[in-house]
Design brief:
- By secondary structure, the protein is α+β, with helices and mostly antiparallel strands.
- 57% of the residues lie in helices and 17% in strands.
- The N and C termini lie far apart (89 Å).
C-alpha cells in the first residue's frame, strides 16, 4: 500500500472518529463469509458501521484526533481488528453479546464510549448497561412526572374530593 493510500485511510478514519466518537474494537477473525454477512446485516440494521482496519492506521488516526483515554487502547491494537462506530453508546455491546453468544465471535477487545476507555472482554457487561442519551432523558422525565402524577391521583380520589371541597369552602369565605 502506498503512502498516499495510507494517508487517505487515516483521514477517513479520523473523519469517522469526528462524526461518531463512540467506537468498539472487536475481533471477528475466523468467521466464515455467511456469518460475517449476517453480522454486517445486523450492524446495518442497528445503525452501526463495521470497518476492518489495520491497527497501525487506526492508531495514527487516534493520535491525530487526540481523544481522551484513546492511548489506553493502543496496547490492544494487535491481531485482527474490526471497528464498530455508533451513535448509540450501548448498541454494539448488545450486538456483540447476542451475536457472540450464538457464534462465538465477535469478541470485544476494547471500546471508547462517552470519552471513557474500556479494555478487555470483562467490560462487555458494563458496556451493555450504559444508558444512551435518549434513555437517560426518558428516566429523568419519568422521575419528574412521578410527583405530579401522585398529586393528580390524590386529587381525583375520594380524598381529592374532600380537598377540593375544602378549597372551595375557603374561597367562599373570602
Amino acid at each position: 500500500m502506498r503512502k498516499e493510500e495510507k494517508r487517505q485511510i487515516i483521514d477517513s478514519l479520523a473523519a469517522q472518529l469526528e462524526q461518531t466518537p463512540n467506537f468498539y474494537l472487536t475481533d471477528i477473525s475466523g468467521l466464515n463469509a455467511e456469518i460475517t454477512a449476517k453480522l454486517r446485516r445486523e450492524c446495518f440494521d442497528k445503525q452501526i458501521k463495521l470497518v476492518v482496519v489495520k491497527n497501525t492506521l487506526l492508531r495514527k488516526a487516534l493520535e491525530t484526533k487526540e481523544l481522551a483515554d484513546a492511548q489506553l487502547l493502543f496496547p490492544i491494537l494487535e491481531g485482527p481488528s474490526a471497528v464498530m462506530f455508533c451513535e448509540v453508546a450501548n448498541a454494539p455491546a448488545k450486538l456483540i453479546k447476542s451475536f457472540g453468544t450464538q457464534y462465538g465471535k465477535p469478541v470485544l477487545k476494547g471500546a471508547l464510549v462517552q470519552e471513557c476507555a474500556y479494555v478487555g472482554v470483562n467490560q462487555l457487561e458494563a458496556l451493555v448497561n450504559i444508558k444512551s442519551r435518549e434513555e437517560l432523558i426518558a428516566d429523568i422525565i419519568a422521575l419528574l412526572q412521578s410527583p405530579a402524577k401522585n398529586v393528580i391521583s390524590a386529587l381525583q380520589s375520594n380524598a381529592g374530593g374532600k380537598i377540593a371541597g375544602i378549597v372551595e369552602r375557603l374561597s367562599e369565605k373570602e
